[in-house]
Specification:
Shape of chain A: elongated
Radius of gyration of chain A: 34 Å
Helix content of chain B: 25-40%
Strand content of chain B: 25-35%
Largest interface: A-B, 28 and 29 residues
Distance between the termini of chain B: 34 Å
Number of strands of chain A: 12
Oligomer: heterodimer
Largest sheet of chain B: 6 strands, mixed
Structural class of chain B: alpha/beta
CATH topology of chain B: Rossmann fold
CATH class of chain B: Alpha Beta
Radius of gyration of chain B: 17 Å
Order of helices and strands of chain A: HHEEHEEHEHEHEEEHEEHEHHHHHH
Strand order of the largest sheet of chain B: 6-7-8-3-9-10
Strand order of the largest sheet of chain A: 3-4-9-6-8-7
CATH architecture of chain B: 3-Layer(aba) Sandwich
Distance between the termini of chain A: 30 Å
Largest sheet of chain A: 6 strands, mixed, barrel
Order of helices and strands of chain B: EEEHEEHEHHHEHEHEE
């Protein structure tokens, strides 16, 4: 069945029926091409997603102050809740099992000046733990350290774009800048994957910020890093306990949702991952839809091809082709076309994905789309298999037709 | 060469059945040139199809060159057709995307003959029908008479025991018909057994024996004086 003669016969048939060969090959190649491109872009979307939300550490809970909406224990509603230094130590003492590190964040916008250059930036009073929560990357110098916090030093760590803005790209380390009327020494320059806004920020020790503001002990937000081994469930439990703790400590009604807010990155992350998963699933469904459309396309063509060739099959049978050989040659033809064009489509698809690379990253949120070789080959093989099946069924029927019936078909 | 006894065949047409062959007894010796005549519906094509193993009789015996033809499945029938029979059809039935040479070579391909040998042999037969220089033309580039001659070469190439022709001149004008009949007579002269189904008197009279079919039975079976077709061909 697989002799050189058989192949020669098949090649002749394919070559002499160019349009037919082209159409069926084109259907298959297009099906695979679209499948691979779609599937790969889906992966690219997920990549972007992960990059986007993978910016911050995932074992972090942010606590933001709010305003009560219910009266409780003699306190009126609409009371501003504030955090102070005691909250930090209280959390540390109450939850030693959960907490790895606690840092405060005090946000203030301040006009910052270096020589003639001046601009408004967000300054954040922090301690060293903030570096890990925000995944801040130090380019030059160092981050705020414990000594800065203890001694309330006037050291600042500025974002990459602050350096660009104020220093025109010259090295800022060791230079003195004016932040809202106080002079700070630049000890570090950082970059952050979170985008331009995060690179236009300035970190200073939170104790220095408190000192400037009349030695207050108030802090803006609390960033709690919990032990990564807690996992998702542990993080959710910790969040619940934190809620109860603050409601109790700040005299907030158990039913009040507005006294303060908690953002649990672990929870967000899980939601985002679920979302990305759904996205991926939708893309996969669409992609497999294309494959099915391809299968239907090639089936239609095969049915048509066999119908068109009924007479030829009749002639071949009359001069001595056995049903097996009739089926065999039709099948081999269709498998040959689908295999060749399937792999051509696959290679083009992979090429397209390679070419896209990061071109669509900014406008369409598709980052380095890819398809694993396994999936690509699997899809191609599926299409080949169904192409063969689609050829086999009408071929078998055609081979069963009596030659006289086939020949009568004028 | 061919021996059939009490051959019956009916077709199911909806609820009623059509009895086409009602007991045919018939013998053909080697080297004969037999015309089977009859009006349409007389069963002549059905008889030829059964002889050609393209169709199966309901009952009766069929022996081809001492080999009883029975219990045919598709594969067996295909092999017998390939080895023992050559077909010539009214509508030529050449494969339109194959050249004359490839068409002639096709039976040999199904016999498993090697390509070189196939081409040599096919070319020899094309030469015999006078179309050697047309061997690389497609059927669409040939005239009706040429197509039928290619079909004759294809029927001959496997050197079958019997040649079966179904209205082989039906699609040709009389001049071309005579040319093709001249060819058939020459092939017969070489000792080949040929059966021709026709409803044309002049064609029938170019054979050596006429069998008349009417309503599924043989009404007349006579040897005749053969009219040579060559006298009509310049």
């Amino acid at each position: 069945m697989f002799s050189r003669d058989t192949w020669r016969e098949i090649f002749i048939t394919l070559r002499k029926n160019k349009l037919r060969t082209f159409l069926s090959g084109f259907t298959v190649a297009l099906g695979i091409l679209i499948f691979i491109t779609l599937f790969g872009m889906g992966n690219g979307l997920v990549n972007t997603f992960n990059e986007f939300f993978g910016d911050d550490a995932t074992n972090v809970i942010y606590i933001f102050p709010g305003r009560t909406s219910l009266p409780y224990k003699g306190y009126k509603s609409n009371r501003n809740i504030e955090f102070d230094n005691s909250d930090l130590t209280d959390i540390e003492e109450t939850f030693p099992m959960f907490v790895e590190h606690i840092s405060p964040r005090i946000f203030r916008t301040a006009t910052t000046t270096y020589k003639e250059e001046s601009n408004d930036y967000t300054t954040i009073g922090v301690d060293w733990g903030q570096q890990f929560a925000e995944k801040t990357i130090i380019m030059q110098g160092r981050y705020i350290n414990q000594r800065d916090v203890d001694e309330k030093t006037r050291n600042a760590v500025i974002g990459r774009l602050v350096e660009v803005d104020l220093f025109n790209g010259r090295n800022a380390i060791g230079k003195y800048i004016d932040i809202g009327g106080s002079v700070f020494k630049v000890v570090g320059v950082f970059q952050d994957d979170g985008g331009d806004n995060e690179e236009r920020q300035i970190y200073i020790p939170y104790t220095t910020r408190q000192l400037i503001e009349k030695n207050t002990d108030k802090i803006g937000q609390i960033v709690v890093q919990f032990k990564p081994e807690l996992g998702y469930t542990g993080a959710m439990a910790f969040e619940k306990n934190l809620r109860l703790f603050f409601k109790d400590k700040k005299f907030i009604s158990p039913d009040d949702q507005n006294g303060f807010f908690i953002r649990n990155v672990a929870d967000n992350l899980k939601q985002n991952q679920d979302f990305a998963g759904v996205l991926q699933m939708i893309v996969s469904v669409v992609a497999f839809g294309t494959i099915i459309a391809g299968i239907i396309g090639i089936s239609n063509i095969m049915v048509y091809v066999v119908k068109e060739r009924t007479k030829e099959i009749g002639i071949r049978k009359a001069i001595g082709a056995t049903p097996k050989r009739v089926i065999g040659s039709i099948l081999l033809e269709s498998v040959f076309i689908t295999t060749v064009s399937g792999f051509i489509g696959m290679l083009i698809g992979i090429g397209v994905l390679k070419w896209i690379g990061d071109r669509l990253k900014d406008d369409y949120f598709i980052t380095s789309p890819y398809i694993s070789t396994g999936v690509a080959i699997f899809a191609t093989v599926i299409l080949i298999f169904f192409g063969a099946l689609a050829g086999y069924i009408p071929a078998r029927r055609a081979a069963r037709i009596k030659p006289i019936v086939a020949l009568r078909n004028e | 060469m061919i021996e059939i006894k009490d051959l019956h065949k009916s077709y199911q047409m909806g609820s009623n059945s059509l009895h086409v062959l009602k007991g045919i007894d018939f013998k053909v010796e080697a080297g004969e040139l037999v015309a089977i005549m009859g009006s349409s519906g007389s069963g002549k094509s059905t008889l030829l199809n059964i002889l050609g193993m393209l169709d199966v009789a309901d009952s009766g015996e069929y022996v081809l060159d001492g080999l009883p033809i029975k219990n045919l499945n598709e594969t067996k029938a295909a092999n017998y057709r390939n080895k023992f029979l050559g077909f010539i059809f009214q509508s030529f039935n050449l494969i339109n995307y194959k050249t004359a040479l490839e068409n002639v070579a096709l039976p040999l391909y199904y016999q498993g003959v090697g390509r070189k040998q196939r081409e040599e042999k096919s070319l020899k037969y094309l030469e015999q029908v006078g179309l050697k220089e047309w061997s690389h033309h497609l059927p669409s580039e040939l005239s009706g008479g040429q197509k039928q001659r290619v079909a004759v070469a294809r029927a001959m190439v496997a050197e079958p025991k019997v040649l079966l022709a179904d209205e082989l001149t039906g699609a040709l004008d009389s001049k071309t018909s005579y040319e093709v009949m001249d060819l058939i007579q020459k092939i017969n002269d070489q000792g080949n057994t040929i059966l021709v189904v026709t409803h044309e008197d002049d064609i029938a009279h170019m054979c050596k024996r006429i069998v008349h079919l009417k309503d599924g039975v043989i009404v007349e079976d006579k040897k005749i004086e053969q009219v040579r077709a060559s006298q009509y061909v310049q």
